[in-house]
Amino acid sequence: MQVNEKARGELLKEVNGLSDEVVNQKLAADQWSIKQVLEHLYLMEATVTRTIEKQLANGEATEAKEKPIERTVNRKTKVDAPEYLVPSEDFRTLEELKKKLAATHQGLSDLENRTNNQDLEAKTFPHPAFGDLSLKQWIPFVGYHEMRHTEQIKEVKVELGV
């Protein structure tokens, strides 16, 4: 969870102190607000946690080669979020979003702490861009994914002039 802790610290540094209005402001219909990026991140983290739990309980043992998941941070490659990870248009306060992010982060951390490394290495789940990832690699993937979206938040802030 080292990558994840670093990513979360950077994310919170970027959003702390922003008003709820700024967080919910959209630049264009086809661009996400900061709120939507944050919502996407907690949806993603919760989904990965549930998927790892499901695979640990029911998945078959399969091997996966280590993938260069750190490339996730590169924003030059556009990836569309699956429908179930697309955020809503609803207004949310920054405090609400931070609570949800804290809860999903704690859930993933708890899962890693109570699960043996060999079990995480023994099972996989496919990623749309990387193919099969070990459950162990899915955990830092969440952190790299968050870093990618922290860069997106920085871009939105520049465009909003904050």
Show the helix and strand layout.
Blueprint: H1 2-15, H2 20-24, H3 34-58, H4 94-114, H5 117-122, E1 124-127, E2 131-134, H6 135-160
Antiparallel strand pairs: 1-2
Helix pairs in contact: 1-6, 3-4, 3-6
Distance between the termini: 30 Å
CATH topology-level fold name: Four Helix Bundle (Hemerythrin (Met), subunit A)
Total DSSP helices: 6
* Overall radius of gyration: 16 Å
Q: What is the 3D shape?
A: elongated
Summarize the main sheet: 2 strands, antiparallel
CATH class: Mainly Alpha
Q: What is the architecture at the second tier of CATH?
A: Up-down Bundle
Name of the CATH homologous superfamily: dinb family like domain
Low-confidence stretches: none
Overall pLDDT metric:
94
Helix content range: 55-70%
Strand content: under 5%
By helix and strand content, what is the structural category?
mainly alpha
State the total count of DSSP E strands: 2
Q: What is the string of helix and strand elements? A: HHHHHEEH
Task: Please give the order of strands in the largest beta sheet.
Answer: 1-2
As for the number of domains, it is 1
